[in-house]
Structure formats: structure tokens, C-alpha cells
Amino acid sequence: MYESLALYINGEFREGDGRVTQTVTNPSTLDELAKLPHATQRDLDDALAAAQKAFESWRHSSPMLRSEILRKVAQLTRDNAETIARNMTLDQGKPLAESSGEVIACADHADWHAEECRRIYGRVIPARSPDVRQFVVREPIGVCVAFTPWNFPYNQAIRKICAAIGAGCTIIIKGPEDAPSAVMAIARLFHEAGLPAGVLNMVWGEPAEISDYLIRSPIVRKVSFTGSVPVGKQLAALAGAHMKPITMELGGHSPVLVFNDADVQQAATQLARFKVRNAGQVCVSPTRFYVHNDIYDEFLKTFVDTLSQIKVGDGLEADTQMGPLAHARRVPTMVEFVSNAKSLGGKVVLGGEPLARTGHFFSPTVVTDLPDHAMLMTDEPFGPIAPVTRFNDTTEVITRANALPFGLSSYVYTNSLKTAHLAARELQSGMVNINHFGSGLPETPFGGVKDSGIGSEGGSETFDGYLVTKFVTQT
User: Fold this and answer.
1) What burial class does residue 59 get, using C-beta atoms within 10 Å of its C-beta: 0-12 exposed, 13-18 middle, 19+ buried?
2) Cα 312 from chain centroid (whole Å)
3) Are residues 437 and 466 located together in one domain of the fold?
4) pLDDT digits over 160-218, tens only?
5) What is the CATH number of the domain that holds 126?
6) pLDDT at 110
7) Scanning 57, 181, 282, 342, which has its CA 20 to 30 A from the CA of 134?
8) Whether 59 and 36 share a structural domain
9) How many C-beta neighbours within 10 Å does residue 52 have?
10) Are 84 and 230 in a shared domain?
């Protein structure tokens, strides 16, 4: 049975009851899964009032209580992982193995926040006078709103929820209407874990309308968003107009630098498999491949051979390695990327077309011989398309890698410590992965620079965006 969809406000689940609803479909089969109720203005007002009221007591709650609830959610996540993952595959499309991995990893995120919320420390500052005592405390910022995307619906939501709740804040979350089951499951698990009413509220609706109404509310004191750069800039401008702090994890266009001293077979195989993870719908997906001319032919052959063997299909089929694109609109976008590449002399050496079957499927695609001004080299494809280009000089390739306004993640393959150190120092990105993919763990910060965002989630930085610093001095 697919998840029963509802709003979650002040500890109560609100179903359709005459509200406007939205059809949720399976991107693999196009079958209807459920109807999702949209929040009315009264629902939003109720959520705001509930979050404000709950904050007055939750802000003073014991870190031990917060930790206990988060630990319960972690265990409940593991206990219900199979069902949650299946529903996520149904509405989002990714292979079941990827959905299961996402859910289990999120249990670790809840456990991490359960530990770290017990370690939100202040400090004592030595005074200039023996009659003065001065110290710093960290306090929860207040009512938070969060907007999360469809590509990793469980992961992106639980990070924000755990950080806010662990810090002593209350939160209203609007998850992805196209893939709502994961966020719905999170609300049910927190409810089952005994979270007080109003601490977590969940609403659905037209994204622009919901975000505008909530961010403008004087009750809201913090905004967190994961999504595209254009939408992120709009929300950041709105939040800034009301002096509200933000955490923004926005899009990227991750460069991959494969040097001539790299393990070519390992690099090509790893990158090919990572490229089609979630059908390329990953903000840190490798998207611009710069390969040294000395190893270019060997890399390209292995890369293409590996991608050509990827089994594309319904995420619930056991042997599927790549599912569909999540939305119908993404398929013509992929076609546009390929068309632009061809018009600029690019060669499609693998794929390049939608698959002739029901669902939003596009074949794993590799394009070569592209100029740096091609769409694939400047706009985030967010799909299973990889442009592979050549380079000869280290300084030149780092300059090319840094040329775009994005700076979320980057990848380097080399067996030279000197080259690895140089690339790590010079690449303008929030995360640099050298010879493997190591981002996104609960204990490591996740975030970008330049147009790719503001602030980090995870790691010891995880609560920074949900706390304010208060200085106290007394005699």
C-alpha cells in the first residue's frame, strides 16, 4: 500500500476534506498513486501558530529529551526502511536499492544529530575586571521553515528537521509534491516517537505561494532551502528583505579532473556508475569531465563501456541500475542538451535519445568534442548525460573548472600528492573529493560556495544555522 497522504499540523494529520488535491504518479509507469491535499491559508496560519506556541516550551527542553526522540526516529527509520524505500521508488523512480540506501543512511543522520545536540556549548570569556563575569550562550533561533526537493526526498528533509529540532527550534516543512511519501513517513515517525505537538508541521501546496506566505510571516525566523539556483536566489532575496537568516543548498555543475597519473580504469568505472545514480538527478553528480589527453582514449572507452551495460528500467525490478527521470518535463530538457551539443560539433558516442517505453526514461549518454560554451558545459543537466573533454595543462584545467558561477562539489583523480593538494587548494567548491566520493555523511559538512549556496548541513556545523549567539556580561 502506498503512503496515505495528509498535512501534519499541531500533532494532527489532516486529509483531503474538500481541499485542493494534486495527483501523484509513478514516473516509471505513469500510474496514479494517490491524491495529495494542498494546504489552505487557514492550514498555514494554524501551522505557524502551532510552531510558535510549541517553541515557547521546546526551546527550554532538555537536550537529553531531544536526543531521545531523535534516536527513536533513527530506530523507527530502520524498522520501516523497506516500506519507506518502496514508496519512494514508486513516486520518485530511483532503483529500490538506492531508495533503501538513502533511508538507512538517514537513520545515521538522526543518530548523529541525537549525539551532537547534547554538545551545543557556550563559553566563558576571561574578564578584564575580577568583578565582571562574561559568557556566551547559543540559543535556538525560533520557528523555522524548510523547503526540500524531490531527488532525495527523505535525506534532504530529515537533515533539516533533525537540525532544527535538535537545536531546540520548531519547524514547518514543505516537501516535494511530486514525491511526497518520504516526508510523509518522517512526520509519522516523529509522531510515533512522541515529539510534542507543533514542534514539527508539514504542509503541501503550490511552492511559490507556500514559500511566499511562510517567509513573509513575522513568526518565521529562519529559512532553509534545497533546490535550484534561480529559486534559491528568489527565496534568499525575500528572506533578506525581512532580515531572516538562510541556509541555501543550491545547484552545482561539478567538474571532474582526471590526471594522467590516475588509476584510469578505477576512475572511469567509478565515475560512470556515480553518473547514473538517481538517473543523474543529484546536485553533486559529476557533470563536466576534464580528462588528460595522455589517458583520454583509455578513459573514454572504459567509461562508455561501463555506461553501456547499465540496466535501465522500473525501480522496483531487481536488476534495475537506473530508473526514470522524475518528471516528464525533464525528458525534452535532455533532448535539448543533446541537440545543442550536436549543433556545436559535439559527438554523441553513447545514447542521446529517450527510451521507447512508457515512463520518463532517457538513455545514459556520453558526448565528446564540446566547446566550453556548450549548454552541457555551462548549465547543470541534472540527468544522465556526461560531456567528456580533453586537457593538457593543470593550471588551464583548474581555470576551466572554476569558470562557472557554481561551486558545490568537485572531483579529482590523481596519484600525485602534489597534484591532489594543488587541486584541493585551488578548486572553488564547497567539497573536493579526491579519488573517491566521500560527501554527504552525517559527520561531514555539506554545502557550496558562490551561486551554489550559503551555509552547511551536517558535521559539527550542522546546528550553526539554527542557533543565535548571545553574549552576557554581569557584575
Assistant:
1) middle
2) 23
3) no
4) 999 999 999 999 999 999 999 999 999 999 999 999 999 999 999 999 999 999 999 99
5) 3.40.605.10
6) 98
7) 57
8) yes
9) 18
10) yes
Q: Please indicate, yes or no, whether residues 159 and 98 belong to a single structural domain of this protein.
A: yes
Cell triple for residue 355? 527510451
- The DSSP output letter for 444 is S
The catalytic site residues sit at 249, 283
Strand partners, 302: none
Rounded Cα distance between 24 and 261, Å, is 48
The cell for 241 is 528583505
Query: How many Å apart are CA 415 and CA 262, to the nearest integer?
Result: 5
The verdict on residue 176 lying in a domain is yes
198 and 307 part of one domain: no
Listed in sequence order, the residues at least 6 apart from 72 whose beta carbon sits closer than 8 Å to its beta carbon are 192, 193, 194
Question: How many domains are there within the chain?
Answer: 2
Q: Does residue 446 belong to any structural domain of this protein?
A: no
Q: Is 137 among the domain residues? A: yes
Instruction: Express each pLDDT in 321-332 by its tens digit.
Output: 999 999 999 999
Domain harbouring 263, CATH code: 3.40.309.10
Mean pLDDT of 17-43: 97
* Residue 403 domain boundaries: 254-441
Residue 437 C-alpha cell reads as: 566520493
| Cα four-point dihedral sign 463, 225, 230, 423 | positive
Contacts 24+ apart (CB under 8 A), 153-156: 153/88, 153/92, 153/179, 153/180, 153/181, 153/182, 153/183, 154/84, 154/88, 154/102, 154/103, 154/106, 154/182, 154/183, 154/185, 154/186, 155/102, 155/105, 155/106, 155/109, 155/440, 156/226
DSSP-assigned beta bridge partners for residue 390: 291
In the chain, what is the greatest distance between 2 CA atoms, to the nearest angstrom?
A: 79
Residues 49, 127 within the same domain: yes
- Residue 202 inside a domain? The answer is yes
- Rounding to the nearest 10 degrees, give the CA dihedral for residues 458, 463, 464, 470: -170
Specify whether the CB–CB gap between 94 and 315 falls below 8 A: yes
Looking at the fold, whether 244 and 259 belong to one and the same domain comes out as: no
What are the residues facing 225 on neighbouring strands?
Answer: 147, 248
Instruction: Find how far residue 164's CA is from the centre of its chain.
Output: 16
Provide, rounded to the nearest whole percent, the portion of the chain with pLDDT above 70: 100
